[in-house]
Structures are given as C-alpha cells and as structure tokens.
Amino acid sequence: MSHNTRRRSILIASALFPLAIATVAGLFVTGQSVTRARHDLLRKETNTAVELVREVQLSQILDSIFPRRWTLTDEQDATLDQAIVYESPSGVTGKAAVYDAASWYRVGTLYLSAAPARHTGLPLQIVMVAAVALLMLGCAITWWVGRPGSGFTVRIGFSAAVLLLLGTPLWLASGWSRAELAHLTDQRLQIAVRALELVPDLAALSARPGGVTQLTGLQFVLSDPAGGEPFSTLHPVATADLGLTPSPFTGRATADRVEYAVADVESIRLVALPFEQTEGSTATVVMIALIGLMVAALPLSFAALANQPRVFHRNVVAWTFLAPSIIHLTIFTVGPLGFAAWLSLHRWSLLDAARPFVGLANYARLLGDGAFWNAIKNTAVFTLHVPFAMAIALAIALVVHRRIRGIVFLRATLFLPTITSLVAIAMVWQWMLHDEYGLINWLLSLIGLGPVHWLSSPATALVSIMIMSVWMMVGYQMILFQAGLAAIPQEYYDAARIDGAGPWRRFVHVTLPGLRHTVFFVLITSVIGSFQVFGAIYVMTEGGPLHATDVAVFHIYEEAWRYFRFGDAAAMSWVLFAIIFTVTLLQFRTLERRVEESA
Amino acid sequence: MVRSSSHPRIGKLLAWGLTLALAASMLAPFLWMLSTSLMDELEVFRFPPRLVPETLRWDNYSGALSARPFGRYFLNSFVFAILIVLGQLFTAATAGYAFAKFEFKGRDKLFLLYLSTMMVPAVVVLIPRFLLIDTLGWIDTYAGLVSTELVSVWGVFLMRQYFRTVPKELEDAARIDGAGPWRVFWTISLPLAKPALATLGLFAFIDAWKNLLWPLVVTTSMNMRTVEVGIASFHGTFVFNWPYQMAAAVMAVLPIMLLFFFTQRYFTRGIQMTGFR
After folding, report:
1. pLDDT of A3-26, one tens digit each?
2. A576 at the B interface (CB within 8 A)?
3. Cα–Cα–Cα angle for A521, A525, A528, nearest 5°?
4. Helix or strand run (H / E) with residue A11
C-alpha cells in the first residue's frame, strides 16, 4: 500500500512542475517584452539624435536631451550616419558614426548607453527565484499531503495555495511590466518633445512630409489645425479620450480605449502609443498559463487511480497513445479557437503596434456592417444549392440503383469533381461560362436562348457558381445515397407491395425512412461545406461583380489579408461559426422530429 | 418502386442511359479543358466554338511551364502532401487505437470532444494559426505549411472503426509472450490495419493537394507555392490566354486523377467504413 501512496505523492508533486514551468515562462515572456521596449526606445532615441544633428549643434543636443555618457572626437560641423543599436554584455548601446560636413571623413563615433532601468515594482529576477523556491516548498507540502487519509478540504486548500503561490508572481510581474512600459512610453514622448523644442524652425520641419515622424519616431504625429498655442503640458500616460483622425500612416485610427501619452509642441500634437507587441505578451502569458494548467491536470487525474495499479497502468498507456494527437489538437485547434475569441475582443492590426482591448466593439460594428451581412446573405443563398443537388442525386440514385456490369468504371467518373484540383475546375467553368465564347452560351444558343452574362452580371454570378457546385456535388452525393439504398432490406419493399402500396407510397414510407441517416449526413456535411465556400469565389469572381458573390469566408479572408484587420476578421469568423453551429443544431432538431413523425 | 420487377429491361436501359449521361456530363468540362489547352491563343475566341483544335498546339504546355516554376510547385505540393500523409497516419493510428482498444477514464467524453472539433470551421482557426506560425518564424517554410495539418479527426474516427473490427485474440497471443502495448501495436495491430491506413493516406494526400486557403495564406514567395496556389495566381496573370490557363489546369488535374484511378477501391471503402466524409 505504501508503494501506491508514494506513487500518488509523486504524481501530485509532478503536477507542480508544468505549473512552475508555465510561471517561469510567463515571467520570462513578460521580461522579454519590457526588454524589447527598452531596446526600441534606445533605437528611437539614437535616431532622434541623428536627425537632430541636421538642425542644431551636436554638443547642445547631447548635453540637453540625453543625460548619458557619450564620446565624440570632433564635433565641429559634423553629421551623423544612420544609427545602429546593438546589445553588448554591459547593456543596450546605440552607436552612430559621425562624419564631417562634407560627409566624407569619418571623424568620430557617438555612443549612447541605455538609461538605468527604473524599477517600479519587484525586480524580475527576484520574482523568478521566489517562484522556484515556492515550487520546492510546494513539493515538500505535497509529500506531506500525499499521505493516506488526507481529506477533501485539505486537497482543495492545497490546490488553491499552489495556484496562489504560482499565480502571484505572474500577477506582480504583469503589474510591473505595465508600469515599466508606461514609464518608457512617457520617456519616449519626453525625448520627442525636447527634441522638437530644440529645432530652430519648427514650421519648416512640420511642413516637410514625414519630417516630425522621422525626428521623433512616434507612431502618431498629428498637426492640430486649431493650433497656435505654445507647448503647454506634458501629460503622463493617461486614459485619454481623444478623437484621433485617420492618418495615412496606420490606415485606421479610432478613438478606442488606448493608453497613450499626449503632448503638444506649438501646432504639433504628439501621441506616443504603447510599445510594439506589449498586448501580445499578455496573450502569450495567458496561453502559457492555460497550457500549464492543462498539463498539470493530467498527473492529478492519474493520482486518483494510484491505488489501483492495473487501472493506473492502462490509463497511462492510453495517454501515451493519445499524446501526439492531443498535443497537436491543443496547439493547433483548441488553442487557436480561444485565441480567435481573444483577438475578436481587440483592435488588432498587422500595421498598428497598439492592440488595445475594445470589448465587444468589433461585434457591435459588425451589426451595422452592410458589407458583412451582404456576405452572409450571399452565403445563405449559395447554400440553397444543396437541396437541389441532393434531389438530383437522390433521383439518379433511385434509377441507377441496380447492379450493372461496367458501372464501376462509370461511377469512378462521378468522383472526379470532388477529388481533383478545385482551382482547375473553377478555371474551366469560368471559361465555359464566358459571355461571348463560352461553351454553355453556345449550347443555349442551339435551343434558341440568348446569351446569358453568367459571371459578369450581378444577377446571375452567384447562380452560376451554384450551378457549378451542384455539378461538383451530385456524383459524390449519389454514391452516398446508393450506399444508403443498398442497406435497406428488400423485405420491407416486398411487405409494402403486399400491402398494396404503389411506387410513391413505397418511396415515402420505405425508402425515405430507410435513408434518413444518409440524408442527415449528406445534408449536414454539405451545408457546413457550402457555408465555407472559398476557392471557387477566389478564382472565378473575387467576390464581384458589385459584391454579388462576396461570401463569408472570402469576406473574412479579405478583411484579414487585404486590409490586415485581424481583430474584425476574428469577430466575423466567430459569428460565422455561431451561425453554422445554430444551423446544424436546427437541422438536427427538425430532421429528427420529421423522422420521428414518419416512423 | 425502382425495384419493380415488372419492366426490368426498360429499367436497366434507363439506368444505363442515365449513368452514361451523368458520366459524360462529369467528363465534359475536363475534355473541354484538354481541348482548349491544345488550341491557338486566338482560335478560342470564336463563336460557335470549335470543339476540337485545328492543329494540336503542344507548345502551350511548354509555354505555360516556362512562364512559372511549375516544377517547383509540383515539388512543393508533393512534399506538403507526403508529410501530411505521414503525420496523419501516425496521429490517427495511435489515437484511433487508444479509443478502440483501451479502457481509460473519460474515454467516451474525450472521443466526443475529438469529434466536436470537426465542427470548427477552418476559417475560425485560420487567423490564429497564421499568427502562431508567424510568431514561430515559419511563414513561407515547409514547417509552416505542414505543421497545422498533421491531425485528421476524421482519420482518428476511421482508424477507431477499423481497429474495433480487429479481433482481440491476435493481440492477446503477443501479450502473453510478454510484448508491451507499443510493441503489440507496431508489430501486430498496425500491419493488420493496412487497408484503413491506405484509405486514410489517400484521403489525406488528395485533401492536401486540393488545399488552397492555407498554402495561400502561409506562403509568400513564388518558390514556396503549391500547385493550387500557383495555378490560381497563373490564372490571374494570363486572364485572356485561355489555352495557357487550360494547359496549367490539365497539369494540375492529371496527377491526382491518375492516382485516383489506380486507388479508387480504397476511396469507396473509406466512405463505407465511416458512413460520411
């Protein structure tokens, strides 16, 4: 018995390790984001110095703006080369070569070393050491708790304590990184303001396109048209409620809840946004913590089985077999599903470093977004081709449902549209649907029907693609129906015939109920598939003409990879998911009811 | 109704006729693709259209081949598909085996969880997967292309169904000889599952070959494109040159068509075994 107890203790203790690793990794990621921000600040600072040299005397700049160590061999009429930033053992250093006025001889080098870090909270290293110490303490407690007879409350209390001990450092570190990043953002703004104050001809600088951006390195530099007022205040980082006007730099700037620092220098309003990727690190930390919890849950659930060695062994073996697929599904399916939800609550663009939390704003905007609902409407209309395809497939299956030699080969051709390259099929259909020289308009002209502007008219474009989809689906669905028909016992038909049932009655009362599972599956999988149509649209119409074929997945694709609005795209994809889910459930409900009624 | 034995001749004829008509309508676009691919660039702009080219212009193929690195596209598609096949065979066989052969805590719930991930539309995970691959620095690499596709839940389902039909006695004999569970799996169960593995491999290969959205998103350079992405962009460039486009289409369709004709019995088996696809 003591052997089992020991095993149980080991298992509980081993649950601590993934948690501790997750904690340390989370701390590491947090620390990294702050380091990156510091690095970025210094690069910006050095660049500001380089830019300023063109405007004012070098020594003046270095004395007044940058209270740092610097060396310079000859500063007379010097210009600076583009700065580089590198990391040496002693810290981050900015370095710029200094050239003479003719930009010919290199006269010296300007060095800028990083400002001493201002710790506004617990130093990260201490926290990390504490986490490891707590882990060891946790192990010791586990050995003690693992004794037989420890009750339910002890276990709950123990778990809570562990989570608290490991969660606290993460919580402290996140507070520290927030404060530190706010401080760095503020510092960045102060440097920009001081630099602007030094520029002798501010009007000329701000008139030059990109002049102020280049000098200050700030994300948003907006001229205040009302201007005229002198440099007034330097706000600390604050939750301001500025109505930012769209600037060509980011493409889109809304007055979301962004924490930024604002300063005015004469007619120029400076807005310093938080550092790149800082929002991203929160997501990473949350994800690491979740993975840690999931991994920790495994040994804990095994611990309950520790005193049944055989059952225990079977469970462990099963999980080794499941591990490859579970790990993959967690990382590439379940995790991303949660991450998509997280994204949909943020203004998240590839082009904009600030990725603020905006709550349900993305969803709220979707409600009034006509283009999105047009895409949903088109998708719904497109889905209507499924019942058509199924009716045709079923009709053919009923007629062809008999054993004929040689039919196996013919049947193979029915699969062709489903297995071959969709892009190639879409290309040939586009060619067949050509307005002037297409095969289909030619066939129509043979029976005296005028040319139809299949893909070039908004009225028929979607219908054209629906026709193509029916063609693609029919053969495959027919095969499924044939398999379903073959499974209906002949006796049922014989019995119905004895009862005097005609062909129609036999179809309604024997064939259809017998096929219900097949119909179920074909309908549901086809509808789910057609809600996700993309390839045909991408190749044949690109959503046009006049958005007549803009379907949901294509719309989401464009939102993300053409306009880089990942947050909005994620919200859209969740709405689509919800719709597909609801429709599937409804189909289950209504079909089940109908099946019950007819049975 | 259709099983009425009163007019077997007419029924049989009708069935034959319909099947032939259906097969013809399935093949027609492919034949038209082939025919156009051998026409002159201007010959296609004619009404009524010529169904067969005046002279066979094979140089459309060499022209299309030299316009884009199609060799590289084929290599990429092949590597992409083969790696995915190997990955899915491994993950599906192990997971399917666990679900079929072991009794463990929460097995049925976990299996239901597996199946429910099939409900998740690809587009929902597309964006996060892209960002994940981006953070890993795998954009425009084989690792980025392949890593997200290594598990097929349908494949897990297929393998589970198959392993359930494998009699327990065969494994028991090996177990009595002292073989561990992994050894039993590798030496006894897996070789018995060859037909199911062939089916899954075939489906995985075809699905990978046909995949457009993921390679489109995750590759950025011309040299990493797969055939599907490659001909889609080819289509955009040579909009008015239909023979070129159709030549590219024929080249994209041909390998998978050949593969299918030699392996179609595995294809139907997969559908029979799971009842859906």
Report:
1. 677 777 777 777 778 888 888 888
2. yes
3. 145
4. helix A2-53
Q: Do A436 and B45 touch (CB under 8 A)?
A: yes
| Short-list A133, A203, A202, CA closest to A169 | A133
Q: Tokens representing A244?
A: 């930012």
Query: Is the model's pLDDT at A78 over the cut of 70?
Result: no
Distance CA B61, CA B54 (A): 17
CB atoms within 10 A of CB A284: 17
- C-alpha to C-alpha distance for A31 and B119, rounded to whole angstroms: 38
Task: Look up residue B223 and give its DSSP letter.
Answer: G
Put simply, the chain A residues between 391 and 410 with a CB less than 8 A from any chain B CB are 396, 398-402, 404, 407, 410
In a domain, A464, yes or no: yes
Produce one character per residue of B24-43: b if its CB has 16 or more CB atoms within 10 Å, e if not.
Answer: eebeebbebbbbbbbbeeeb
Residue A239 in any domain: the answer is no
CA distances in angstroms from A465 to A335, A452, B212, B222, listed in the order given: 34, 14, 18, 29
User: Which residue in A has a C-alpha nearest to residue B11's C-alpha?
Assistant: A399
| Structure tokens given for A216 | 């200050």
B43 with B166, same domain: the answer is no
Residue B54 sits in the same domain as residue B139: no
Residue B95 sits at the chain A interface (C-beta within 8 Å): yes
Q: Which two tokens stand for residue A505?
A: 């009655």
- d(C-alpha A405, C-alpha A473), whole Å: 24
**Number of domains, chain A:** 1
Q: Tell me, what DSSP letter sits at residue A234? A: B
Rg (CA), chain A: 34
Which residues does A419 contact at the CB level (< 8 Å), separation at least 6?
B206, B210, B256, B257, B260, B267
Is the sign of the CA dihedral B140, B146, B147, B153 positive or negative? positive
Q: Do B221 and B138 belong to one domain?
A: yes
How confident is the model at residue B216, as a pLDDT? 93
Which carries the bigger pLDDT value, residue A396 or residue B247?
B247
The verdict on a CB contact (< 8 Å) between B4 and A503 is: yes
Instruction: Output the six-digit token pair for A227.
Output: 């201007």
Predicted confidence at residue A391, as pLDDT, reads: 93
Cβ-based neighbour number of residue A266 at 10 Å: 18
| Domain assignment of residue B54, given as a range | 8-59
A564 φ/ψ sector (left φ>0, alpha ψ -120 to 50, else beta): left
The first and second tokens of residue A399, run together, are 């007629």
Q: Which structure tokens are listed for A222?
A: 């907006």
A560 in contact with B at a CB cutoff of 8 Å? yes
The answer to whether A154 and A127 have CB atoms below 8 angstroms apart is no
Q: How many domains are contained in chain B?
A: 2
Buried b vs exposed e over A169-188: b needs ≥16 C-beta within 10 Å?
Answer: bbebbbebbbbbbbbbbbbb
Buried b (16+ CB within 10 A) or exposed e, B120-136: bbebbbbbbbbbbbeee
Of residues A452 and A554, more confidently modeled: A554
